[in-house]
Amino acid sequence: MSTMDQTLVTRIVEAALLAANQPLTVVQLHGLFPLDEPAPEGSVETALADLQTACAERGVELVELASGWRFQVKADVHPWVARLWTERQTKYTRATLETLALIAYRQPITRGEIEQVRGVAVNSAIIKALEEREWIRVVGHRDVPGKPELLATTKAFLDYFGLKRLDELPPLSELKDIGELEPQLPFAPAVPAGVDMGSETADADVGSESTSDQETPESDQAGTEVDADPTSATSEADADDTVADIAPDQDDNDGDDAEEASSEQNQ
Fold it and tell me: Which of 37, 116, 195, 214 falls 20 to 30 Å from 54 in CA-CA distance?
């Protein structure tokens, strides 16, 4: 059995990392080599170190994340390479980023504890969106009445932010504002406590309230018109009474004329 040279091992590891659509662990890289011709001991680790060194002057870098090793675009050339991605960038509200940061720095943490820190209710849609993104997951339940779920981050979260371990997160004292997690994102206002809805829905409700306020004078005017109607009805009723008062006089006159005519005929 011939021994595979280091150059070939490095080329195989490089090709595998470039072809993979997700990070690869050292175990997975060792699995690329058949049992009858395994990679020499330590050759995969040496290949990774050599590839990292070779990327020093290139536009990509080889980094180790929570899920394994991967090539990624360097930050200094990212603005140009990002033009290749035509899909619309996902934008997260300030409430979403604050919730994610609390889970990351204080995990495991319950939803109620997040609400205590932020001072506002946590929208259920925020938790659902973070779970669908596979950035957070339920890791247990707090041993208190109600057994609330304990939330924590995942390896996918670390991979997305280019981290290998949670201790690589920047200290909270260095975060002047939660927006530094994604400074280019426009933040929406936080949802007040007790309101379980998205920011857009809340804005729509505010708009509805403003519209209602604007319609109030019209309602008041309509009420004034209704109040004017009884006056008109009263005037009409008074007119009817006046006609009724006059009518009997006419009837009496007609009766007198008839009596005079009857007297003349008798004469």
Answer: 37
